[in-house]
Structure formats: C-alpha cells, structure tokens
Automatic annotation (TrEMBL):
This is Integral membrane protein. Keywords: Membrane, Transmembrane, Transmembrane helix. The chain crosses the membrane at residues 12-30, 50-67, 74-92, 98-123. It comes from Streptomyces amakusaensis. It comes from the Bacteria.
Length: 137
C-alpha cells in the first residue's frame, strides 16, 4: 500500500512539473508579445508570429517525449493541456471584453489534448519497440 501511494505521489509531482514547464514555455515564447501588427492596408495580424508558436510546440515536445519514454504518459497528456489552457486564459482574458477568448482557450485545450495524446502514443510505441529489440539482441 505504501509503495502505491509513493508511486501516485511521484506521478502527481511529474504532472505538476509538466504543468509548470508548459506555463513557463508559454510565457517565454508568447507571453511577452501583446501587440498586433498593423499593415498599410489597415489589416492587422498577430500578436504572435509563426516562429513563436513553432518554438513553443518544439519546446513542449521535450517534456512530452521525456514523460512518454519513462511511462509517465498521463503526466504529459494531462499536464501540457492544463498548462497551455491556464496560460492562454490568463494571457487572453484581459484583452477581450466580448468573452470570445473563451472559444480560443477551448480550442487550445482540445488541440493540445489531441496533439499530446498522439505524440505520447507514438513515442511510447517507438520506445517499447526499441526496448524489445534490445532485449532480444
């Protein structure tokens, strides 16, 4: 019984670390850019550039792959979406008086769950096949 509580506590600690890492990655890549770019024709883009979002995604691959290779998939699948959802909510709520930011936050949640499940599953399968090949050889 004691071993099970220790394992559960460790998994919770991993999940909290992934949440914190994800929120910090959002702040580092997207949190500082709050200005929309105005074009000469009057249209606006932003506030984020494509390279910022790509950098965030590549950064989040690290904790997702790390957790999946160590059989902590739940930590990644729960932690990354929670971290992104909380960070986007905190970042966007003050800028939108219409409340439409909630749709974007919901899309972040749904998309990050789907992407994290896919990445974690692929990494887990690859890691397990490598372990099987190593044990046979």
């Amino acid at each position: 019984m004691r071993q099970r509580l220790t394992t559960s506590g460790f998994h919770l600690l991993i999940t909290l670390a992934v949440i914190a890492t994800t929120a910090a990655a959002w702040a580092a890549w997207l949190g500082w850019d709050q200005v929309r770019d105005e074009a000469l024709d009057g249209s606006s883009t932003g506030p984020y550039e494509a390279w910022q979002v790509i950098g965030l995604v590549l950064t989040l691959l690290l904790p997702a792959c790390w957790a999946a290779t160590r059989r902590y998939n739940i930590g990644a699948v729960v932690g990354i979406p929670i971290g992104l959802t909380v960070a986007s909510y905190y970042d966007w709520r003050a800028d939108d008086s219409s409340g439409l930011f909630a749709i974007g936050v919901a899309m972040i949640l749904a998309g990050s769950i789907a992407a994290t499940v896919a990445v974690s599953s692929v990494v887990k399968v690859v890691a397990e096949s490598r372990q099987r090949r190593a044990s046979v050889a």
